[in-house]
Amino acid sequence: MERVSGKGKDVYIETFGCQMNEDDSERLFAFLNEIDFQKTDEPEDADLIILNTCSIREKAEQKVYSTLGRLKALKKKNPDLIIGISGCVAQQEGQRLLKRIPHLDLVIGTQNIHRVDALLKEVSTKGARVVANELSATISSGEYRPRLRDVKKVKSFVSIMRGCNNFCSYCIVPYVRGSEVSRPSPEILEEVKTLASGGTKEVTLLGQNVNSYGTSGGGDVSFPELLTSVCRVEGIERVRFITSHPKDISMELLELFSAERKLCRNIHLPVQSGSDKVLERMKRGYTADEYLEKVFLLKRLYPGTSISTDIIVGFPGEEERDFEATMEVVKVVEFDSIFSFKYSPRPGTLAAKFTDQVPPDVRSRRLEVLQAEQKQITIKKNKALEGKTVEVLVEGRSKASEDELTGRTPCNRVVNFPGELALAGSIIEVLITQAYSNSLRAVPIERSLLCC
Ligand code: SF4
Description:
The protein has helices at residues 19-34, 58-70, 72-77, 87-93, 95-100, 116-126, 173-177, 185-197, 223-231, 251-259, 276-282, 288-301, 320-333, 360-383; strands at 10-15, 38-39, 48-53, 82-86, 106-108, 130-132, 155-159, 161-162, 181-182, 202-206, 238-242, 266-268, 306-313, 337-342, 389-397, 404-408, 414-418, 427-435, 440-444. It is an alpha/beta fold. It has four domains: 10-132, Methylthiotransferase, N-terminal domain (Rossmann fold), CATH 3.40.50.12160; 148-264, Transcription Regulator spoIIAA, CATH 3.30.750; 294-384, Transcription Regulator spoIIAA (2-Layer Sandwich), CATH 3.30.750; 389-450, CATH 2.40.50.140. A six-stranded parallel sheet has the order 2-1-3-4-5-6, sandwiched between helices. It has a five-stranded mixed β-barrel with strand order 15-16-17-19-18. A three-stranded parallel sheet has the order 7-10-11, sandwiched between helices. The protein binds iron/sulfur cluster (SF4). Iron/sulfur cluster is lined by residues 164, 166-168, 171, 173-174, 208-209, 245.
């Protein structure tokens, strides 16, 4: 089949939502770049605009529709402009989107990114409006093609699986990402090696539930075995993974924190609630005590491991005492950071049908209380680092100041410090001089490294 050409054309991709979407956007661009599209940061300059969307919460979905609305004026000015939508909203809404948004040309579901070339051809040569949102139980060859060598990034995500079989009662992911399938490990390792040869120093292995890698089709090794192989890739200095489901975390995995030097002692372990009643209705598969047992084992075995979590407040039926149980977990664990949200009913999920929804003002108040508590904990933990020496992987210029560099500690804290851009990609030692709620300020210890 003759391919559509993007020669002399620019694509603008806007990404909403999680790391999975960030990785999908990179993959989308890699496929477009193969047919000569270049990237632009300005939607006004683009020949093709794709919004890679998120539907995990109502607010995220509304943001997509308002952005799509704003693009109408651009289409009016340039009728040849192709506007597409990919990701979870595309998967969920499919054909309905074409009806709702007359200036939309292309709808690419979560498992159809690799078909973007053929789909664009339909639009540009036949003037068709196209929807591709079929889901498949297998990963087709070439769907996750190893990245282009010229994508030079200090750190990168690598998807190791897709979909989820857990069906937590509030979550739309299993419906929009399909059932769980793992990528073959040789293909993942090839991608990591390609990234390393392009200068990537840190990889984060991505999946909705990485602990079940290899257990439900596709994967040929266990997740700890895969992690071990990734840690052995020459040129890669740091390895992380996200997300771990608390019910599936194994001793074999925890032991890797001591066996593998490159594996950062940093784990994201979503608790969601501290109330057993709420956890059961969420269908999370663990109790608060079972969760705490794993967290304290981790803390005992590897003191200093940073632990982050997700918490939903105002889940249907959450009473004040349930919320207090969540606050208790937050206080005893002292998470390094939390991602906290007000419950938002997602049509089609089990929890959206629950009749005991919590009033919006109660949800808002609980979120405020939770976030205020966590802010104190984060500041306290950051303050404890003042005067300490930490290793930082230098990522590049700081967004806050042109004169400063930014990087992250193994425990994933953002550190800003003075230095030359030539240090990007190296791991250096810095002395923490000041702690803030979201970042740390530091000075490099090996000052000689600043001269280049
Ligand atoms: S584990 Fe639960 S919350 Fe996470 S993606 Fe799967 S269904 Fe959603």
